[in-house]
Protein backbone atom coordinates (compact mmCIF):
# COMPACT_ATOMS: atom_id res chain seq x y z
CA UNK A 1 0.00 0.00 0.00
CA UNK A 2 2.77 2.29 0.86
CA UNK A 3 4.59 1.35 -2.27
CA UNK A 4 1.55 2.08 -4.36
CA UNK A 5 1.11 5.37 -2.57
CA UNK A 6 4.70 6.30 -3.18
CA UNK A 7 4.50 5.28 -6.81
CA UNK A 8 1.34 7.31 -7.25
CA UNK A 9 2.93 10.26 -5.51
CA UNK A 10 6.00 9.92 -7.64
CA UNK A 11 3.91 9.70 -10.79
CA UNK A 12 1.85 12.67 -9.69
CA UNK A 13 4.95 14.63 -8.90
CA UNK A 14 6.46 13.74 -12.22
CA UNK A 15 3.24 14.75 -13.94
CA UNK A 16 3.22 18.03 -12.05
CA UNK A 17 6.85 18.47 -12.97
CA UNK A 18 6.07 17.73 -16.60
CA UNK A 19 3.16 20.13 -16.54
CA UNK A 20 5.32 22.77 -14.94
CA UNK A 21 8.01 22.07 -17.45
CA UNK A 22 5.51 22.28 -20.24
CA UNK A 23 4.14 25.51 -18.83
CA UNK A 24 7.66 26.81 -18.48
CA UNK A 25 8.42 25.77 -22.02
CA UNK A 26 5.18 27.38 -23.09
CA UNK A 27 6.07 30.54 -21.21
CA UNK A 28 9.49 30.52 -22.75
CA UNK A 29 7.96 29.97 -26.16
CA UNK A 30 5.48 32.74 -25.47
CA UNK A 31 8.24 35.04 -24.36
CA UNK A 32 10.23 34.14 -27.40
CA UNK A 33 7.16 34.69 -29.52
CA UNK A 34 6.61 38.04 -27.87
CA UNK A 35 10.26 38.81 -28.37
CA UNK A 36 10.03 37.76 -32.01
CA UNK A 37 6.94 39.86 -32.51
CA UNK A 38 8.67 42.84 -30.93
CA UNK A 39 11.73 42.17 -33.03
CA UNK A 40 9.62 41.88 -36.15
CA UNK A 41 7.87 45.08 -35.32
CA UNK A 42 11.22 46.73 -34.72
CA UNK A 43 12.55 45.34 -38.00
CA UNK A 44 9.60 46.73 -39.89
CA UNK A 45 9.88 50.17 -38.27
CA UNK A 46 6.31 50.12 -36.97
CA UNK A 47 7.25 51.97 -33.81
CA UNK A 48 6.28 55.61 -33.88
CA UNK A 49 6.45 58.62 -31.59
CA UNK A 50 3.56 60.94 -31.11
CA UNK A 51 2.93 64.16 -29.22
CA UNK A 52 -0.48 65.35 -28.12
CA UNK A 53 -0.75 67.39 -31.29
CA UNK A 54 1.03 65.10 -33.77
CA UNK A 55 -0.19 61.90 -35.42
CA UNK A 56 2.79 60.31 -37.11
CA UNK A 57 2.53 57.26 -39.37
CA UNK A 58 5.08 54.45 -39.32
CA UNK A 59 6.61 53.50 -42.63
CA UNK A 60 8.27 50.29 -43.78
CA UNK A 61 11.06 50.31 -46.33
CA UNK A 62 9.58 47.47 -48.40
CA UNK A 63 5.87 47.10 -47.64
CA UNK A 64 4.65 50.66 -47.12
CA UNK A 65 3.63 53.22 -49.72
CA UNK A 66 2.71 56.75 -48.59
CA UNK A 67 0.82 59.25 -50.71
CA UNK A 68 0.42 62.77 -49.38
CA UNK A 69 -2.28 65.21 -50.41
CA UNK A 70 -4.03 68.30 -49.09
CA UNK A 71 -7.48 68.00 -47.62
CA UNK A 72 -9.94 70.87 -47.39
CA UNK A 73 -8.37 72.12 -44.19
CA UNK A 74 -4.76 72.06 -45.29
CA UNK A 75 -3.88 68.86 -43.34
CA UNK A 76 -1.65 66.23 -44.93
CA UNK A 77 -3.39 62.90 -45.50
CA UNK A 78 -1.11 59.83 -45.68
CA UNK A 79 -2.62 56.67 -47.19
CA UNK A 80 -0.77 53.48 -46.25
CA UNK A 81 -0.99 50.19 -48.13
CA UNK A 82 0.55 47.61 -45.85
CA UNK A 83 0.79 43.82 -46.12
CA UNK A 84 0.02 43.52 -42.43
CA UNK A 85 -2.60 45.80 -40.84
CA UNK A 86 -1.95 47.53 -37.58
CA UNK A 87 -5.12 45.91 -36.24
CA UNK A 88 -3.34 42.53 -36.44
CA UNK A 89 -0.63 43.55 -34.00
CA UNK A 90 -1.12 41.60 -30.79
CA UNK A 91 0.40 44.23 -28.54
CA UNK A 92 -1.94 46.99 -29.76
CA UNK A 93 -5.22 46.80 -27.89
CA UNK A 94 -7.08 49.28 -30.05
CA UNK A 95 -10.63 48.75 -31.17
CA UNK A 96 -11.58 50.19 -34.51
CA UNK A 97 -14.57 52.03 -33.11
CA UNK A 98 -12.49 53.69 -30.39
CA UNK A 99 -9.85 54.58 -32.93
CA UNK A 100 -12.46 56.16 -35.18
CA UNK A 101 -13.85 58.15 -32.27
CA UNK A 102 -10.36 59.38 -31.42
CA UNK A 103 -9.77 60.30 -35.05
CA UNK A 104 -12.99 62.29 -35.10
CA UNK A 105 -11.86 64.20 -32.02
CA UNK A 106 -9.22 65.92 -34.13
CA UNK A 107 -10.75 69.03 -35.61
CA UNK A 108 -9.29 71.65 -37.88
CA UNK A 109 -10.27 75.26 -38.22
CA UNK A 110 -10.33 77.11 -41.53
CA UNK A 111 -6.60 77.91 -41.29
CA UNK A 112 -5.50 74.31 -40.69
CA UNK A 113 -5.02 74.60 -36.91
CA UNK A 114 -5.95 71.45 -34.98
CA UNK A 115 -8.33 71.61 -32.03
CA UNK A 116 -8.07 68.45 -29.85
CA UNK A 117 -10.72 67.53 -27.31
CA UNK A 118 -8.50 66.46 -24.42
CA UNK A 119 -11.40 64.76 -22.61
CA UNK A 120 -12.07 62.36 -25.46
CA UNK A 121 -8.68 62.10 -27.08
CA UNK A 122 -7.16 60.10 -24.23
CA UNK A 123 -10.10 57.66 -24.11
CA UNK A 124 -9.97 56.89 -27.78
CA UNK A 125 -7.23 54.26 -27.48
CA UNK A 126 -5.20 52.31 -24.98
CA UNK A 127 -1.76 50.82 -25.24
CA UNK A 128 -0.18 48.03 -23.24
CA UNK A 129 3.23 49.58 -23.89
CA UNK A 130 3.61 52.92 -22.14
CA UNK A 131 6.76 53.72 -24.06
CA UNK A 132 4.97 53.34 -27.39
CA UNK A 133 2.10 55.75 -27.98
CA UNK A 134 -0.72 54.52 -30.16
CA UNK A 135 -2.34 56.47 -32.94
CA UNK A 136 -5.97 56.78 -33.98
CA UNK A 137 -6.71 55.65 -37.47
CA UNK A 138 -9.60 55.20 -39.84
CA UNK A 139 -9.49 52.90 -42.85
CA UNK A 140 -5.70 53.14 -42.99
CA UNK A 141 -5.87 56.93 -43.43
CA UNK A 142 -3.71 58.93 -41.06
CA UNK A 143 -3.67 62.65 -40.46
CA UNK A 144 -0.31 64.26 -39.93
CA UNK A 145 0.04 67.63 -38.27
CA UNK A 146 2.97 69.47 -39.88
CA UNK A 147 3.11 72.63 -37.76
CA UNK A 148 5.14 75.44 -39.17
CA UNK A 149 5.51 73.70 -42.52
CA UNK A 150 1.75 73.93 -42.92
CA UNK A 151 1.87 77.70 -42.56
CA UNK A 152 4.74 78.04 -45.01
CA UNK A 153 3.09 75.80 -47.61
CA UNK A 154 -0.32 77.45 -47.31
CA UNK A 155 0.13 80.98 -45.92
CA UNK A 156 -2.66 82.59 -43.99
CA UNK A 157 -4.92 84.68 -46.16
CA UNK A 158 -5.42 88.16 -44.70
CA UNK A 159 -9.01 89.12 -44.02
CA UNK A 160 -10.78 90.93 -46.79
CA UNK A 161 -10.82 94.67 -46.31
CA UNK A 162 -14.17 96.33 -45.79
CA UNK A 163 -12.78 99.86 -45.86
CA UNK A 164 -14.67 102.31 -48.09
CA UNK A 165 -12.66 105.50 -48.70
CA UNK A 166 -14.40 108.87 -48.53
CA UNK A 167 -15.36 110.68 -51.70
CA UNK A 168 -12.97 113.30 -53.03
CA UNK A 169 -13.52 116.83 -51.81
CA UNK A 170 -13.49 119.52 -54.51
CA UNK A 171 -11.03 121.59 -52.52
CA UNK A 172 -9.06 123.53 -55.12
CA UNK A 173 -7.14 125.46 -52.47
CA UNK A 174 -5.20 122.35 -51.42
CA UNK A 175 -2.85 122.62 -54.40
CA UNK A 176 0.61 124.14 -53.96
CA UNK A 177 0.98 127.74 -55.08
CA UNK A 178 4.02 128.90 -57.03
CA UNK A 179 6.90 130.09 -54.87
CA UNK A 180 9.33 132.96 -55.06
CA UNK A 181 11.77 131.02 -57.26
CA UNK A 182 9.16 129.97 -59.82
CA UNK A 183 10.47 132.46 -62.37
CA UNK A 184 13.82 130.66 -62.37
CA UNK A 185 12.11 127.74 -64.15
CA UNK A 186 12.37 129.66 -67.42
CA UNK A 187 16.16 129.49 -67.16
CA UNK A 188 16.25 125.70 -66.83
CA UNK A 189 17.70 123.93 -69.84
CA UNK A 190 15.32 121.57 -71.64
CA UNK A 191 16.48 118.97 -74.16
CA UNK A 192 13.87 117.37 -76.41
CA UNK A 193 15.05 114.60 -78.73
CA UNK A 194 13.02 112.97 -81.46
CA UNK A 195 11.66 113.36 -84.98
CA UNK A 196 9.48 116.41 -85.68
CA UNK A 197 9.21 117.56 -82.08
CA UNK A 198 6.14 119.87 -81.77
CA UNK A 199 6.78 123.48 -80.87
CA UNK A 200 6.52 124.23 -77.17
CA UNK A 201 3.79 126.52 -75.81
CA UNK A 202 4.31 129.68 -73.79
CA UNK A 203 0.94 130.02 -71.99
CA UNK A 204 -2.02 127.80 -71.21
CA UNK A 205 -4.25 130.06 -73.29
CA UNK A 206 -2.14 129.41 -76.41
CA UNK A 207 -2.06 125.65 -75.88
CA UNK A 208 -5.46 124.93 -77.43
CA UNK A 209 -7.07 123.80 -74.19
CA UNK A 210 -10.84 124.15 -73.91
CA UNK A 211 -12.32 126.97 -71.88
CA UNK A 212 -13.76 124.65 -69.26
CA UNK A 213 -10.32 123.15 -68.61
CA UNK A 214 -8.75 126.62 -68.42
CA UNK A 215 -11.31 127.58 -65.77
CA UNK A 216 -10.47 124.48 -63.74
CA UNK A 217 -6.78 125.33 -64.11
CA UNK A 218 -7.40 128.76 -62.69
CA UNK A 219 -9.29 127.27 -59.74
CA UNK A 220 -6.31 124.99 -59.08
CA UNK A 221 -3.93 127.99 -58.98
CA UNK A 222 -2.20 127.06 -62.26
CA UNK A 223 -1.34 130.33 -64.00
CA UNK A 224 1.91 129.74 -65.89
CA UNK A 225 3.06 126.41 -67.36
CA UNK A 226 6.28 124.86 -66.09
CA UNK A 227 8.99 123.78 -68.55
CA UNK A 228 7.80 120.17 -68.62
CA UNK A 229 4.22 121.34 -69.23
CA UNK A 230 5.30 123.62 -72.08
CA UNK A 231 6.77 120.66 -73.95
CA UNK A 232 4.43 117.85 -72.87
CA UNK A 233 1.12 119.48 -73.80
CA UNK A 234 1.77 119.83 -77.56
CA UNK A 235 3.55 116.46 -77.75
CA UNK A 236 0.64 114.56 -76.17
CA UNK A 237 -2.02 116.50 -78.07
CA UNK A 238 -0.27 115.29 -81.25
CA UNK A 239 -0.55 111.68 -80.03
CA UNK A 240 3.20 111.16 -79.75
CA UNK A 241 4.74 108.72 -77.29
CA UNK A 242 7.00 110.38 -74.74
CA UNK A 243 9.43 109.60 -71.97
CA UNK A 244 10.10 112.59 -69.73
CA UNK A 245 12.32 113.38 -66.79
CA UNK A 246 11.91 116.54 -64.73
CA UNK A 247 12.82 117.60 -61.23
CA UNK A 248 10.53 116.89 -58.30
CA UNK A 249 7.72 119.38 -57.86
CA UNK A 250 7.75 120.59 -61.47
CA UNK A 251 4.15 119.73 -62.38
CA UNK A 252 4.61 116.43 -64.23
CA UNK A 253 1.17 115.05 -63.32
CA UNK A 254 -0.71 118.02 -64.75
CA UNK A 255 1.58 117.89 -67.79
CA UNK A 256 -0.10 114.70 -69.00
CA UNK A 257 -3.58 115.02 -67.48
CA UNK A 258 -4.37 118.35 -69.18
CA UNK A 259 -3.78 117.28 -72.81
CA UNK A 260 -5.49 113.92 -72.23
CA UNK A 261 -8.63 115.61 -70.90
CA UNK A 262 -8.64 117.93 -73.88
CA UNK A 263 -8.27 115.02 -76.34
CA UNK A 264 -11.11 113.09 -74.70
CA UNK A 265 -13.36 116.14 -75.17
CA UNK A 266 -12.22 116.95 -78.71
CA UNK A 267 -12.29 113.37 -79.97
CA UNK A 268 -14.81 111.53 -77.79
CA UNK A 269 -15.28 107.79 -78.13
CA UNK A 270 -18.17 105.71 -76.85
CA UNK A 271 -17.83 104.63 -73.24
CA UNK A 272 -18.54 100.91 -72.85
CA UNK A 273 -20.92 100.25 -69.96
CA UNK A 274 -22.53 96.81 -69.72
CA UNK A 275 -22.43 96.13 -65.97
CA UNK A 276 -20.17 93.09 -66.45
CA UNK A 277 -16.77 94.58 -67.17
CA UNK A 278 -14.99 97.92 -67.46
CA UNK A 279 -13.15 99.25 -70.51
CA UNK A 280 -11.22 102.39 -69.51
CA UNK A 281 -9.96 104.72 -72.22
CA UNK A 282 -7.04 106.04 -70.15
CA UNK A 283 -4.97 103.92 -67.76
CA UNK A 284 -2.58 105.61 -65.32
CA UNK A 285 -0.29 103.35 -63.28
CA UNK A 286 1.17 104.38 -59.92
CA UNK A 287 3.64 102.50 -57.68
CA UNK A 288 2.02 103.60 -54.39
CA UNK A 289 -1.53 103.99 -53.13
CA UNK A 290 -0.98 107.51 -51.85
CA UNK A 291 0.29 108.71 -55.21
CA UNK A 292 -2.61 107.01 -57.00
CA UNK A 293 -5.08 108.85 -54.76
CA UNK A 294 -3.34 112.16 -55.43
CA UNK A 295 -3.37 111.63 -59.22
CA UNK A 296 -7.06 110.77 -59.22
CA UNK A 297 -7.87 113.79 -57.06
CA UNK A 298 -6.09 116.12 -59.49
CA UNK A 299 -7.74 114.50 -62.51
CA UNK A 300 -11.13 114.89 -60.83
CA UNK A 301 -10.54 118.59 -60.15
CA UNK A 302 -9.28 119.35 -63.64
CA UNK A 303 -12.18 117.44 -65.26
CA UNK A 304 -14.90 119.14 -63.23
CA UNK A 305 -18.12 119.73 -65.25
CA UNK A 306 -16.69 117.96 -68.30
CA UNK A 307 -18.57 114.67 -67.91
CA UNK A 308 -15.32 112.71 -67.83
CA UNK A 309 -15.39 110.01 -65.17
CA UNK A 310 -12.25 109.27 -63.16
CA UNK A 311 -12.03 106.28 -60.84
CA UNK A 312 -9.43 104.79 -58.52
CA UNK A 313 -8.31 101.20 -58.07
CA UNK A 314 -5.91 100.35 -55.25
CA UNK A 315 -5.41 97.79 -52.50
CA UNK A 316 -6.48 97.96 -48.88
CA UNK A 317 -10.07 98.93 -49.73
CA UNK A 318 -13.28 96.96 -50.17
CA UNK A 319 -13.19 95.07 -53.46
CA UNK A 320 -16.96 95.09 -53.91
CA UNK A 321 -17.05 98.87 -53.53
CA UNK A 322 -14.44 99.45 -56.23
CA UNK A 323 -16.05 96.84 -58.47
CA UNK A 324 -19.40 98.63 -58.33
CA UNK A 325 -17.78 101.95 -59.20
CA UNK A 326 -15.72 100.80 -62.18
CA UNK A 327 -18.58 98.76 -63.66
CA UNK A 328 -20.55 101.99 -64.07
CA UNK A 329 -18.09 103.05 -66.74
CA UNK A 330 -14.74 104.85 -66.51
CA UNK A 331 -12.89 107.19 -68.85
CA UNK A 332 -9.73 107.57 -66.73
CA UNK A 333 -8.66 104.74 -64.43
CA UNK A 334 -5.84 105.34 -61.92
CA UNK A 335 -4.55 102.08 -60.45
CA UNK A 336 -1.78 100.36 -58.56
CA UNK A 337 -0.44 97.15 -60.14
CA UNK A 338 -1.66 94.62 -57.57
CA UNK A 339 -5.36 95.49 -57.47
CA UNK A 340 -5.47 96.11 -61.23
CA UNK A 341 -4.10 92.64 -62.00
CA UNK A 342 -6.61 91.17 -59.57
CA UNK A 343 -9.50 92.80 -61.46
CA UNK A 344 -8.01 91.80 -64.82
CA UNK A 345 -7.77 88.16 -63.72
CA UNK A 346 -11.42 88.31 -62.69
CA UNK A 347 -12.26 89.63 -66.15
CA UNK A 348 -13.72 92.77 -64.63
CA UNK A 349 -11.36 95.02 -66.63
CA UNK A 350 -10.28 94.74 -70.25
CA UNK A 351 -8.10 97.00 -72.38
CA UNK A 352 -9.87 96.97 -75.74
CA UNK A 353 -10.62 100.71 -75.50
CA UNK A 354 -7.27 102.00 -74.19
CA UNK A 355 -6.18 105.23 -75.90
CA UNK A 356 -3.56 106.44 -73.40
CA UNK A 357 -1.30 104.40 -71.15
CA UNK A 358 0.75 106.33 -68.57
CA UNK A 359 3.43 105.23 -66.12
CA UNK A 360 3.84 107.79 -63.34
CA UNK A 361 7.15 107.29 -61.52
CA UNK A 362 8.19 105.06 -64.41
CA UNK A 363 11.57 104.17 -62.94
CA UNK A 364 9.89 102.60 -59.90
CA UNK A 365 7.33 100.75 -62.02
CA UNK A 366 9.95 99.37 -64.39
CA UNK A 367 12.45 98.16 -61.82
CA UNK A 368 12.63 94.62 -60.49
CA UNK A 369 9.70 95.19 -58.14
CA UNK A 370 6.97 96.01 -60.66
CA UNK A 371 8.43 95.22 -64.07
CA UNK A 372 6.72 91.83 -64.23
CA UNK A 373 3.34 93.37 -63.39
CA UNK A 374 3.67 96.05 -66.06
CA UNK A 375 4.70 93.49 -68.67
CA UNK A 376 1.73 91.32 -67.71
CA UNK A 377 -0.63 94.25 -68.28
CA UNK A 378 0.95 95.41 -71.54
CA UNK A 379 1.06 91.84 -72.88
CA UNK A 380 -2.53 91.06 -71.94
CA UNK A 381 -4.54 89.65 -74.83
CA UNK A 382 -7.05 92.53 -74.60
CA UNK A 383 -4.42 95.30 -74.64
CA UNK A 384 -4.37 97.31 -77.86
CA UNK A 385 -1.18 97.32 -79.91
CA UNK A 386 1.55 99.85 -79.25
CA UNK A 387 0.81 101.63 -82.54
CA UNK A 388 -2.86 102.07 -81.56
CA UNK A 389 -2.28 103.78 -78.22
CA UNK A 390 -0.21 106.65 -76.81
CA UNK A 391 2.29 105.59 -74.15
CA UNK A 392 3.73 108.15 -71.72
CA UNK A 393 6.35 107.75 -69.01
CA UNK A 394 7.24 110.35 -66.38
CA UNK A 395 9.67 110.44 -63.46
CA UNK A 396 12.15 112.66 -61.68
CA UNK A 397 14.85 110.00 -61.97
CA UNK A 398 15.35 107.69 -64.94
CA UNK A 399 18.40 105.45 -64.59
CA UNK A 400 20.01 104.29 -67.80
CA UNK A 401 18.84 100.68 -67.49
CA UNK A 402 15.23 101.81 -66.98
CA UNK A 403 15.38 103.98 -70.09
CA UNK A 404 16.40 101.01 -72.20
CA UNK A 405 13.56 98.91 -70.76
CA UNK A 406 11.09 101.73 -71.46
CA UNK A 407 12.04 101.84 -75.13
CA UNK A 408 10.47 98.40 -75.63
CA UNK A 409 7.02 99.78 -74.78
CA UNK A 410 7.17 102.94 -76.91
CA UNK A 411 6.64 103.66 -80.59
CA UNK A 412 9.82 104.02 -82.68
CA UNK A 413 9.22 107.76 -83.15
CA UNK A 414 8.84 108.56 -79.45
CA UNK A 415 10.16 111.82 -78.02
CA UNK A 416 12.40 112.12 -74.98
CA UNK A 417 12.30 115.28 -72.87
CA UNK A 418 14.88 116.06 -70.20
CA UNK A 419 14.27 119.11 -68.01
CA UNK A 420 17.29 120.38 -66.12
CA UNK A 421 19.68 118.01 -64.38
CA UNK A 422 18.35 114.49 -64.91
CA UNK A 423 18.48 112.59 -61.64
CA UNK A 424 19.66 115.69 -59.79
CA UNK A 425 18.14 117.36 -56.76
CA UNK A 426 16.10 120.53 -56.88
CA UNK A 427 18.27 123.59 -56.29
CA UNK A 428 15.51 125.24 -54.26
CA UNK A 429 16.20 122.74 -51.47
CA UNK A 430 19.03 123.51 -49.05
CA UNK A 431 20.76 120.21 -48.30
CA UNK A 432 22.71 119.50 -45.12
CA UNK A 433 24.52 116.24 -44.34
CA UNK A 434 25.40 115.56 -40.70
CA UNK A 435 27.65 112.72 -39.54
CA UNK A 436 25.59 111.01 -36.84
CA UNK A 437 26.04 107.50 -35.51
CA UNK A 438 23.11 105.14 -35.10
CA UNK A 439 22.46 105.59 -31.38
CA UNK A 440 22.89 109.38 -31.50
CA UNK A 441 20.20 110.01 -34.11
CA UNK A 442 17.33 110.48 -31.69
CA UNK A 443 19.07 113.22 -29.73
CA UNK A 444 20.21 114.87 -32.96
CA UNK A 445 16.63 114.94 -34.26
CA UNK A 446 15.31 116.40 -31.02
CA UNK A 447 17.99 119.09 -31.13
CA UNK A 448 17.01 120.05 -34.69
CA UNK A 449 13.32 120.26 -33.80
CA UNK A 450 14.13 122.33 -30.71
CA UNK A 451 16.14 124.80 -32.77
CA UNK A 452 13.35 125.10 -35.35
CA UNK A 453 10.92 127.91 -34.64
CA UNK A 454 7.97 126.04 -36.11
CA UNK A 455 8.32 122.36 -36.98
CA UNK A 456 4.95 122.33 -38.74
CA UNK A 457 5.32 120.57 -42.10
CA UNK A 458 8.26 118.28 -41.26
CA UNK A 459 8.64 114.84 -42.81
CA UNK A 460 11.05 112.38 -41.18
CA UNK A 461 12.06 109.40 -43.32
CA UNK A 462 13.15 106.08 -41.81
CA UNK A 463 14.02 102.73 -43.38
CA UNK A 464 12.15 100.33 -41.06
CA UNK A 465 8.39 100.22 -40.54
CA UNK A 466 8.61 99.51 -36.82
CA UNK A 467 11.01 102.42 -36.45
CA UNK A 468 8.38 104.76 -37.92
CA UNK A 469 5.82 103.97 -35.22
CA UNK A 470 8.41 103.99 -32.45
CA UNK A 471 9.88 107.33 -33.46
CA UNK A 472 6.41 108.88 -33.84
CA UNK A 473 5.57 107.80 -30.29
CA UNK A 474 8.84 109.25 -28.95
CA UNK A 475 8.27 112.62 -30.65
CA UNK A 476 4.69 112.73 -29.36
CA UNK A 477 6.00 112.27 -25.82
CA UNK A 478 8.17 115.37 -26.37
CA UNK A 479 5.03 117.38 -27.25
CA UNK A 480 5.52 117.26 -31.02
CA UNK A 481 2.19 116.14 -32.57
CA UNK A 482 3.37 113.30 -34.80
CA UNK A 483 1.80 110.60 -36.93
CA UNK A 484 3.30 107.83 -39.04
CA UNK A 485 2.71 106.15 -42.38
CA UNK A 486 4.17 102.89 -43.69
CA UNK A 487 3.20 99.74 -45.55
CA UNK A 488 2.11 97.70 -42.51
CA UNK A 489 -0.57 100.19 -41.45
CA UNK A 490 -4.11 99.56 -42.60
CA UNK A 491 -5.26 101.65 -45.53
CA UNK A 492 -7.69 103.80 -43.48
CA UNK A 493 -4.89 104.46 -40.98
CA UNK A 494 -2.55 105.53 -43.79
CA UNK A 495 -5.12 107.87 -45.28
CA UNK A 496 -6.07 109.37 -41.92
CA UNK A 497 -2.40 109.95 -41.05
CA UNK A 498 -1.76 111.70 -44.36
CA UNK A 499 -4.96 113.73 -44.06
CA UNK A 500 -4.07 114.85 -40.52
CA UNK A 501 -0.66 115.98 -41.72
CA UNK A 502 -2.05 117.83 -44.73
CA UNK A 503 -4.67 119.58 -42.62
CA UNK A 504 -2.01 120.52 -40.03
CA UNK A 505 -3.56 118.58 -37.20
CA UNK A 506 -0.18 116.86 -36.96
CA UNK A 507 3.06 118.79 -37.26
CA UNK A 508 5.39 115.91 -38.10
CA UNK A 509 4.98 112.89 -40.37
CA UNK A 510 7.31 109.92 -39.88
CA UNK A 511 7.30 107.83 -43.04
CA UNK A 512 9.01 105.05 -44.94
CA UNK A 513 9.52 105.01 -48.70
CA UNK A 514 5.74 104.85 -49.36
CA UNK A 515 5.68 108.65 -48.96
CA UNK A 516 8.87 109.41 -50.84
CA UNK A 517 7.47 109.63 -54.38
CA UNK A 518 5.13 112.09 -55.99
CA UNK A 519 3.25 113.29 -52.91
CA UNK A 520 2.31 116.94 -53.30
CA UNK A 521 1.71 118.29 -49.79
CA UNK A 522 1.24 121.97 -49.14
CA UNK A 523 3.48 123.55 -46.52
CA UNK A 524 6.27 120.97 -46.26
CA UNK A 525 9.18 123.07 -45.05
CA UNK A 526 11.71 120.48 -43.95
CA UNK A 527 12.65 116.87 -44.73
CA UNK A 528 14.84 114.88 -42.34
CA UNK A 529 16.48 111.67 -43.51
CA UNK A 530 16.72 109.94 -40.14
CA UNK A 531 17.94 106.92 -42.11
CA UNK A 532 19.53 107.48 -45.49
CA UNK A 533 18.12 105.32 -48.32
CA UNK A 534 20.13 102.67 -50.12
CA UNK A 535 19.99 104.40 -53.53
CA UNK A 536 20.69 107.96 -54.58
CA UNK A 537 17.48 108.05 -56.66
CA UNK A 538 15.45 107.44 -53.51
CA UNK A 539 17.31 110.27 -51.79
CA UNK A 540 16.40 112.68 -54.59
CA UNK A 541 12.73 111.73 -54.35
CA UNK A 542 12.67 112.08 -50.57
CA UNK A 543 14.08 115.59 -50.40
CA UNK A 544 11.80 116.49 -53.30
CA UNK A 545 8.80 116.55 -50.94
CA UNK A 546 9.87 120.10 -50.14
CA UNK A 547 10.95 122.96 -52.38
CA UNK A 548 8.18 122.37 -54.93
CA UNK A 549 7.01 124.81 -57.63
CA UNK A 550 9.64 127.40 -56.75
CA UNK A 551 9.13 127.29 -52.98
CA UNK A 552 12.11 127.17 -50.64
CA UNK A 553 12.79 123.98 -48.70
CA UNK A 554 15.33 122.40 -46.37
CA UNK A 555 16.63 118.84 -46.16
CA UNK A 556 18.80 117.44 -43.35
CA UNK A 557 20.27 113.93 -43.55
CA UNK A 558 21.95 111.83 -40.86
CA UNK A 559 24.98 110.07 -42.30
CA UNK A 560 26.07 106.97 -40.38
CA UNK A 561 29.60 106.08 -41.61
CA UNK A 562 29.20 102.44 -40.61
CA UNK A 563 26.05 101.96 -42.69
CA UNK A 564 25.72 104.70 -45.30
CA UNK A 565 29.19 104.64 -46.86
CA UNK A 566 27.96 102.88 -50.08
CA UNK A 567 26.22 106.08 -51.24
CA UNK A 568 28.73 108.57 -49.82
CA UNK A 569 30.31 109.50 -53.12
CA UNK A 570 26.90 109.64 -54.82
CA UNK A 571 25.75 112.13 -52.18
CA UNK A 572 28.80 114.26 -52.81
CA UNK A 573 28.02 114.41 -56.53
CA UNK A 574 24.36 115.29 -55.94
CA UNK A 575 25.36 118.07 -53.56
CA UNK A 576 27.94 119.42 -55.98
CA UNK A 577 25.52 119.47 -58.91
CA UNK A 578 22.95 121.32 -56.80
CA UNK A 579 25.53 123.94 -55.72
CA UNK A 580 25.46 122.74 -52.11
CA UNK A 581 28.27 122.46 -49.59
CA UNK A 582 29.94 119.05 -49.65
CA UNK A 583 31.24 117.80 -46.27
CA UNK A 584 34.72 116.28 -46.36
CA UNK A 585 33.74 113.05 -44.57
CA UNK A 586 31.83 111.94 -47.68
CA UNK A 587 35.08 111.54 -49.60
CA UNK A 588 36.35 108.78 -47.33
CA UNK A 589 34.46 106.23 -49.40
CA UNK A 590 33.64 105.97 -53.07
CA UNK A 591 30.70 103.89 -54.31
CA UNK A 592 30.04 102.55 -57.77
CA UNK A 593 26.24 102.87 -57.67
CA UNK A 594 26.02 106.26 -59.30
CA UNK A 595 26.05 106.51 -63.08
CA UNK A 596 25.44 109.95 -64.62
CA UNK A 597 22.65 109.84 -67.20
CA UNK A 598 23.17 111.53 -70.53
CA UNK A 599 20.11 113.52 -71.64
CA UNK A 600 20.82 112.93 -75.33
CA UNK A 601 21.36 109.19 -75.10
CA UNK A 602 18.30 108.64 -77.27
Short description:
The protein is an alpha/beta fold and 602 residues long. 33% of the residues lie in helices and 14% in strands. It has three domains: 88 residues, no CATH class; 231 residues, 3-Layer(aba) Sandwich (Rossmann fold), CATH 3.40.50; 160 residues, P-loop containing nucleotide triphosphate hydrolases (Rossmann fold, 3-Layer(aba) Sandwich).
Descriptors:
602 residues; alpha/beta; Rossmann fold; 3 domains; eight-stranded mixed sheet; six-stranded parallel sheet; 18 helices; 19 strands; 14% strand; disordered C terminus
Please describe what this structure looks like.
By secondary structure, the protein is an alpha/beta fold. The protein has 3 domains: 66-153, no CATH class; 189-419, 3-Layer(aba) Sandwich (Rossmann fold), CATH 3.40.50.300; 429-588, Rossmann fold (3-Layer(aba) Sandwich), CATH 3.40.50.300. The chain has 18 helices and 19 strands. The chain has helices at residues 2-43, 96-104, 118-121, 148-153, 211-219, 227-237, 252-266, 289-302, 319-326, 337-345, 362-365, 371-378, 400-407, 441-451, 465-477, 491-502, 536-543, 568-577; strands at 66-70, 76-80, 106-108, 114-116, 141-144, 190-193, 242-245, 282-285, 310-313, 332-335, 356-360, 390-395, 415-419, 429-435, 458-461, 482-485, 508-511, 526-529, 553-559. The strands form 4 sheets. It has an 8-stranded mixed β-sheet with strand order 6-13-7-12-11-8-10-9. The chain has a 6-stranded parallel β-sheet with strand order 14-19-18-15-17-16, with helices on both faces. Strands 1-2-5 form a 3-stranded antiparallel β-sheet, with no helix packed on it. A hairpin with a 5-residue loop joins β1 and β2 (76-80). α6 (227-237) runs parallel beside α7 (252-266). The longest helix is centred in the first third of the chain and has 42 residues, at 2-43. The chain is globular, with a radius of gyration of 37 Å. The N and C termini lie far apart (135 Å). Mean pLDDT is 78; it is low at 1-8, 10-15, 19-24, 28-146 and 594-602.
